[in-house]
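Late entry, written up from scratch paper. The run itself happened at the end of the previous shift, but nothing got recorded in the book at the time, so transcribing now.
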Amino acid sequence: MRPDQPCLLTTKDFAILEVMLGRCLGRDDPLRPIIAAKLAAARVVLHEDIPAGVVTLNSRVRYRAGDGPAQTRVISHDEMHGLVGSILPIRQPRGLALLGLAEGQSFAVTQNRQATVMTVLEVIYQPEAARHARSKLSGAYAAPRLRLVHDAGPLSPGKAARPPTNSDDPGPSAA
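Output as recorded:
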């Protein structure tokens, strides 16, 4: 990530990184420099204002690690059991490196004394963009959620609805 390319983070993603930085175990934690760089370069936006081509939590991303083949993963907060091989958690340097990057942006991450450039090729799915598209769609075809099925008709003026006289319910005056 170059200084002229800010890291775009939603308020939620920014807060998660702040908590992660606070939980780092000293200066030797491999995530500390990545988190610090992300937070220093971050431009924080509301979830409805983040562009669709930016990696956020739970985004499905096609990326390249160095000169390796393109891979597709879901960027997640934690490991998810049952989705083996399809998750890249931000608790790993490579997953953390991709968070906040836009399509075409890169971030160099050093792991085991070896630098790898992580490049976002495509954001296939972003939850914020999907939510925005659903709200646009529902707004375009706005239909009432509730529909009157039966109407008893208007009450005659001066007549209030009363329970039947043969009822053994004493009504509200008994309270």
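The chain has a mean pLDDT of 82.
(Scratch paper discarded after transcription.)
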